[in-house]
């Protein structure tokens, strides 16, 4: 099974800060890595697919990069509405499809 | 607009059974691969299982913790996905989401989630 290790598990940042989250896969997954945002009590929402493609309607301050085993997700300028938990997810080899452990983003 | 509406869920005793439903709207359900994802209280997302479309053989795949106990099925005439959960354990307590990948290899449409509580 492919393991996906996400870090950090939580972070605190100020409005306007640049925020970066990383995901490492236990083996090469090419660009089959997606990023989701989840707010409390809500279903996850797709933000980035195939490592670097922005889902329609998602603000351009969100971006993703990487391939192989190392991936990053960036919020270029943190906004109050970005407070949420973010998850990466690999889609290269299943079963099982695996999610990272999540990163909780809070305001400082 | 594409969306999924879930029903079912509730409180069940350990060893019991429960069936969840997920109805699709706004897209060609019969062509969609459908997935179940769960989230235990305060925990992260966990993939449960999926069913492919008829054209892909209605193939099912399951996560190890639920294999042999849970069954994913679909009724394309009703645009509905099901999750039959048997021999439930306390560790199956979670919010269960249905999801589908309409455009990319990513879950771009999600149901609203339904809580399953396994407790005596």
Describe this protein's structure:
The complex is a heterodimer of chains A (108) and B (120). Chain A has strands at residues 4-7, 10-13, 19-25, 33-38, 45-49, 53-54, 62-67, 70-75, 84-90, 98-99, 103-107. Chain A has 108 residues and is an all-beta fold. In chain A, strands 2, 4, 5, 6, 9, 10 and 11 form a seven-stranded mixed β-sheet that branches. In chain A, strand 7 and strand 8 form a beta hairpin. Chain B has 120 residues and is mainly beta. Helices cover 0% and strands 48% of the residues of chain B. Chain B has strands at 3-7, 10-12, 18-25, 34-39, 45-51, 60-62, 70-75, 80-85, 94-100, 109-110, 114-118. The interface between A and B is medium-sized, with 24 and 23 residues.
Provide the β-strand percentage band of chain A: over 45%
Average pLDDT level of chain A = 96
The string of secondary-structure elements of chain A, in order, is EEEEEEEEEEE
Secondary structural class of chain B: mainly beta
What is the end-to-end distance of chain B?
40 Å
* DSSP helical segment count of chain B: 0
Quaternary structure type: heterodimer
Shape type of chain B? globular
Largest interface: A-B, 24 and 23 residues
Q: Helical proportion of chain A?
A: under 10%
**What spatial form of chain A do the alpha-carbon principal axes imply?**
globular
* Overall pLDDT confidence of chain B: 97
Helix run count of chain A = 0
Count of DSSP strands of chain A: 11
Please outline the major beta sheet of chain B: 7 strands, mixed
As a percent range, the share of strand residues of chain B is over 45%
* Total beta strands of chain B: 11
Secondary-structure element string of chain B: EEEEEEEEEEE
Tell me the major beta sheet of chain A: 7 strands, mixed
